[in-house]
Write a structure and sequence with these properties.
Elements (H helix, E strand, L loop, with lengths): L3 E6 L5 H11 L5 E8 L5 H8 L4 E3 L8 H14 L4 E4 L8 H6 L4 E5 L14 H10 L3 E8 L9 E8 L6 H25 L5
Parallel strand pairs: 1-2, 1-4, 2-3, 4-5
Antiparallel strand pairs: 5-6, 6-7
This protein binds 5-O-phosphono-beta-D-ribofuranosylamine (GRF).
5-O-phosphono-beta-D-ribofuranosylamine binds next to α1, β5 and α6.
Length: about 200
C-alpha cells in the first residue's frame, strides 16, 4: 500500500492524530491525512486540522439530530475524501453501523491499556488509568485494534506494555502512556503500509 489516505475521527485534544500527521509531513509515513471529523465543534483536533489545512468537519448530534443521518454523514464524508483507513484518535462516540460496513476491517482505534483489560463501554481517558491503578496491576500499556460492533473488542493489531511505577497517579501514568501511544500508532500504520500487518 502506498500513498494511502487517512481519515481521522477525534473528539478532543487530537495529540495522537497530530503525531500521525507529523509523521506523514516528515515522510516517515507514506500516507496522506485526507480528512478530520469531530463530534465536538470546539475540539483541538479541528483546530489542528485547520492549521494543517486538512479538510475538517464538525459532524454530531447537533448537526444531525437523527442518529442514522449522522452515521450516513460520517460515512459519506469519509467516502467523499477517498479514505482508505479510518483512524479513531480519542473519538468518544460509537461508530455507526453504516460506517462500519463501508470500512469493515479498516477502522483502527487506540486504547490506553492492555485490552481486554480495562476496556469496554464507558472506559476512556482518566477512567482507564484510574482502573489500572485501583487494580494494583504492575503494568499497563497501549493497544491498537480494529473497530467492530462491540466496544474495544475487535482484533488486536499491536500492544506495548508499560510499567506502573510506585507512586504513579492518573496524571503521571496517562502522560507516560500517551508518549507510547504516539509511537505505536505511527508504527502500526507503517507496518500496515509495509504489508507486515494485513487489514
Ligand atoms: C488517548 O489516550 C487515546 O488512547 C484515547 O483517547 C486519548 C486521546 O488523546 N482513545 P488525544 O486526543 O489523541 O490527545
Amino acid at each position: 500500500m502506498t500513498n494511502i489516505k487517512l481519515g481521522f475521527l477525534a473528539s478532543h485534544r487530537g495529540s495522537n492524530m497530530q503525531s500521525i500527521i507529523d509523521a506523514c509531513n516528515k515522510g516517515e509515513l507514506d500516507a496522506i491525512p485526507g480528512v478530520v471529523i469531530s463530534n465536538n465543534g470546539d475540539s483541538g483536533a479541528l483546530d489542528r486540522a485547520a492549521s494543517e489545512q486538512i479538510p475538517a468537519y464538525h459532524l454530531s448530534s447537533k448537526t444531525y439530530p437523527e442518529p442514522d443521518e449522522l452515521d450516513y454523514a460520517i460515512r459519506d464524508t469519509l467516502l467523499k475524501h477517498e479514505v482508505d483507513i479510518v483512524i479513531l484518535a480519542g473519538f468518544m462516540k460509537k461508530i455507526g453501523q453504516h460506517t462500519i460496513d463501508a470500512f469493515a476491517g479498516r477502522i483502527l482505534n487506540i486504547h490506553p491499556a492492555l485490552l481486554p483489560k480495562h476496556g469496554g463501554k464507558g472506559m476512556f481517558g482518566a477512567k482507564v488509568h484510574k482502573a489500572v491503578l485501583d487494580s494494583g496491576d504492575k503494568e499497563t500499556g497501549v493497544t491498537i485494534h480494529v473497530v467492530t460492533d462491540n466496544y474495544d473488542q475487535g482484533p488486536i493489531l499491536a500492544q506495548l506494555a508499560i510499567p506502573v511505577l510506585e507512586g504513579d497517579t492518573v496524571d503521571t501514568l496517562s502522560n507516560r502512556v500517551l508518549t507510547v501511544e504516539h509511537q505505536i500508532y505511527v508504527d502500526t500504520i507503517k507496518r500496515i503500509i509495509a504489508g507486515d500487518i494485513q487489514l
